[in-house]
Amino acid sequence: MKKLADIAHSRAGDKGNILVLSLIPFDVKDFDWLVQNITAERVKSHLQNQVNGNVTRYVLPSIHALQFTCEDALAGGVTTSLALDAHGKSLSYALLEMQI
Amino acid sequence: MKEKIRIGCGAGFSGDRIEPALILTEKGNLDYLVLECLAERTIALAQKRKLQNPELGYDVLLEKRLKDLLPLLLRHNTRLITNMGAANPISGAKKIIELAKAQTLSLKVAAVIGDDVFEFLSGEEHSLENKQPIRSQGKLVSANAYLGVEAILPALASDADIIITGRVADPSLFLAPMIHEFGWKLDQFDLLGKGTVLGHLLECAGQLTGGYFADPISKPVPDLDQLGYPFVDVFPDGRGIISKVKGTGGMISERIAKEQLLYEVLDPYHYFTPDVVADFSTVQFEEIAFDQLQVTGGSGIEKPEKYKVSVGYEAGFKGEGEISYAGAHAIERVRLAGEIIEKRIKRLVANLRIDFIGLNSLHPAELSKNSNPYEVRLRVVGMCENMEQAQLIGEEVEALYTNGPAGGGGARKMVTQVVGVVSTLLDRNQVKPSFHLFSV
């Protein structure tokens, strides 16, 4: 069984209580497959106990990348969160755990 | 008009490494150096320091960061733009003058003010996060508008060697010198969008040269211990070439740039700054030589009507305690420890969180359900109204030494006063930036 980590990389960012995850294939030939298969719904379901709000997906063909904006996902946001990783910086690798 | 200008980024957050900026300035042949040192919460904490002492409130590392940098900036004719003024750019400027005096250097510092809008807020303004009046969050301690290039440009037009600001949108620190040097107009949104792309790419310093990117298996990066920070050659058409000083660690690559372009961007088609709503979707990267990346494309449409304001409030006290278990039945013992703490203090601390570090403290628990680590660390944390209650959490965890499961070791406890941050919007006419010039 392969994981997303085998074919793509990701960086996590935060804005308040919103988690932002990029998803970029190592090989641009995998971009179309990612567009077809890694939908906002699938990301929301994979991170269901982390992301409580909507997930919006942006497709960026010019750089062959996807961006997922996940609302209500950081236990209130960095300033008042009780999480060890209050920024959610490690969560790129939670996305990359997805079985494909 | 110059054919190109070179802007380097020597710090990407308040606690960043010191020496990369020295190396950039010494060997980078820069026209401008930017030090970005101000996170959302940093300015509220700085405001609290200013309340205790009106001479403070600028970045706590200002002296350490600038002492050795000042002579290099003058020798290489590099102007510095930094938001290390935090809650008190005037005092920050005076401190820089003092540092220059001590080294018998002659320089001019412009302090940009006007971002502090605390006195203009009634508390009735609605927060963008939960739509409630901001005063309902708790005691308000600071309010700073994200200023744009319009606040920096007059200072650049003066003969200041150093420009120190408080809250300014990060990309504007980079966009301002582009506008100043190339004579771009403030309604040439396509150019402002392109410049904003370059500023956004650079603003986190080492994150563009391999920091926060490296993975020894899938994305190896050389010499992170000597990570070099980036600079960009900007051309009058808004194109940029990103590189770094030869011989420093890290690397320049398309993969890194893609990650950084999208970093913290809510909507890549509409990236809001005080200067422009930029469109990142048409950006293209090309590796044109070793450690040289060309950036083209990107655009912009309009200037947002209002300023975003970041409001700090007192959110209580966070109490934490940790203790570790290892070997046989480590998971069972750490779970027992967590249950004991819950039974003892759950009724006192409503907002209590229990993590098992090594198992489920970073990612949702279902991702680690088949993991069986050799050692696990209990982490108990809660948000409390007062310091005493917050201290109790760590004390209870520490008491597991003699009252809890076998083999608990390495207990630690900590209390932090928490400043929360929410955002609101303010009309442009309520914000009037200006600058003061100091010289020695």
As for the number of domains of chain A, it is 1
Q: Could you tell me the number of beta strands of chain B?
A: 18
- Name the shape of chain A in a single word: elongated
Average predicted local confidence, pLDDT of chain B: 96
Q: Which percent range describes the beta-strand content of chain A?
A: 25-35%
Q: What Rg of chain B, in angstroms, do the CA atoms define?
A: 24 Å
Biggest sheet overview of chain A: 5 strands, antiparallel
Count of DSSP-assigned helices of chain B: 12
CATH class bucket of chain A:
Alpha Beta
Write down how many β-strands of chain A occur, each being a DSSP E stretch of 2 or more residues.
Answer: 5
Fraction of residues in H or I helices of chain B: 25-40%
Molecular structure report:
- The complex is a heterodimer of chains A (100) and B (440).
- In chain A, 18% of the residues lie in helices and 26% in strands.
- With 100 residues, chain A is an alpha+beta fold.
- Chain A has a single domain (4-95), classed as Alpha-Beta Plaits, CATH 3.30.70.
- In chain A, strands 1, 2, 3, 4 and 5 form a 5-stranded antiparallel beta sheet that branches.
- Chain B is globular.
- Chain B has 12 helices and 18 strands.
- The two termini of chain B are 29 Å apart.
- Chain B has helices spanning 19-27, 40-52, 62-66, 69-75, 89-102, 149-157, 170-182, 189-202, 254-262, 330-345, 387-398, 400-403; strands at residues 5-11, 32-35, 79-82, 108-113, 140-145, 162-164, 230-234, 240-244, 271-272, 277-279, 284-289, 292-296, 299-300, 306-326, 352-357, 375-384, 409-427, 434-439.
- In chain B, 28% of the residues lie in helices and 27% in strands.
- Chain B is of the alpha+beta class and 440 residues long.
SSE inventory with pairings:
The complex is a heterodimer of chains A (100) and B (440).
Chain A: E1 8-9, E2 12-15, E3 18-25, H1 31-37, H2 40-46, E4 55-60, E5 65-70, H3 92-95
Antiparallel strand pairs in A: 1-3, 2-3, 3-5, 4-5
Chain B: E1 5-11, H1 19-27, E2 32-35, H2 40-52, H3 62-66, H4 69-75, E3 79-82, H5 89-102, E4 108-113, E5 140-145, H6 149-157, E6 162-164, H7 170-182, H8 189-202, E7 230-234, E8 240-244, H9 254-262, E9 271-272, E10 277-279, E11 284-289, E12 292-296, E13 299-300, E14 306-326, H10 330-345, E15 352-357, E16 375-384, H11 387-398, H12 400-403, E17 409-427, E18 434-439
Parallel strand pairs in B: 1-2, 2-3, 3-6, 4-6
Antiparallel strand pairs in B: 1-7, 4-18, 5-14, 7-8, 8-12, 9-10, 10-13, 11-12, 14-16, 14-17, 15-16
